[in-house]
Sequence to fold (188 residues):
Amino acid sequence: MMLRDKRKLLFYVCLVFICGCSGGVKHYSRPHTDVKHIKSIAVLPFENYTTDGYADEKIGSITGIELLSRGIDVTEPGEVGRVLQEMRVSSLKALTPSDIQEIGEALKVDGIMGGSVSVYQISRGISVSYPEVSVYLTLYESATGKVLWSTWHTSGGPGFWTRHFGAEIATLGEVSRNVIKEAFDNLF
Fold:
């Protein structure tokens, strides 16, 4: 094989490796909508579909902190809980646009954030362990009750160093912060 052909082959192998290793955030943004007017958000309690009984609270706290770090005012969780209790909200899955508007008006916020955690664990392979976190987030506009943005994102899994050398690089907490940060990078 000629040197030029070897370089082409090496380039394509590297390209396949890079593309195969890159993950992506799947998200939806309402067309022709700008979220710059969202200056305050109430984070609803998250749904928890994991075996960790506190995954929803952990991810909810990280979500609030990430929003604050991006300059968004976040309503205290106790205040959100009080309003939900006063409204007799029995299921967050069954909220209607008018419910979202009522919650937004009661809390005086521009947006309502809901979500769920479907994976929050240290997974074990044959000879390695690695953290994995998967979340679903939705941002509603309080004034209309409509979805402005929604995302599903997973982070973690066995990286290069874990697969080849058995080294666990990140903790479950670090992966949790990373999954929320990467999700919001598509929004704010």
